[in-house]
Design brief:
With about 220 residues, the chain is mainly alpha-helical. About 80% of the residues lie in helices and about 0% in strands. The longest helix is centred in the N-terminal third of the chain and has 36 residues. It is elongated and about 70 Å long. The termini are far apart.
Length: about 220
Amino acid sequence: MSAPWFDWSLIDWADIGTATLDTLTMLGASLTFTVLLGLPLGVLLYLLGPRRLLANKPAYAALSFVINALRSMPFVILLIVLIPMTVKLVGTSIGVAGAIPPLVVGAAPFFARLVESALREVDLGIVEATQAMGATTWQIVSRALLPEALPGLLAATTVTAVTLVSYTAMSGVIGGGGLGDLAIRYGYQRFQTEVMVITVLALLAVVQILQMAGDWLVRRATRK
């Protein structure tokens, strides 16, 4: 029997299913591009840092400033600011496609910082030993730094994925599609509490699954 405030008949499960798939699509696409952009950025931040292989104080300061500026901007504002760029890239600023560019721009700097932190945890002795054997910078990064930092990188990817789930929900403000858009259109604008509750539960389920999968991968990488 339904609670007085909860009417199951108001829930369109087909819409919930479609919105969930849209959220997962946005998450998968944006996470892929975030890793592809954020990983090199994080490695570059590490290499340009003080007492690192390519130490360059002005370059490090400039790159840090850009990344910090993007990280400090509220995502809702970033969604609006990037509308012209999004339209040029994908032809629209709404729907699943329109949400992906701002999701990547918002998450890539965040992920880059996490990558830099993970690389800093690598023992400098390993880097120095690899360098002493005549390895190039690329070889040091690919054969020493990244393999040694793998558990930290997996943890960073998990944190970024969870953050992107919240970003996808916020993208509903500009009609980005997914569970966030459904919650705003029905749960907020039409005061359908039932839809709001189901969308929140669906988002929680996605976050829990991501966190559990990420923790499992980190444990596997740590044991190797």
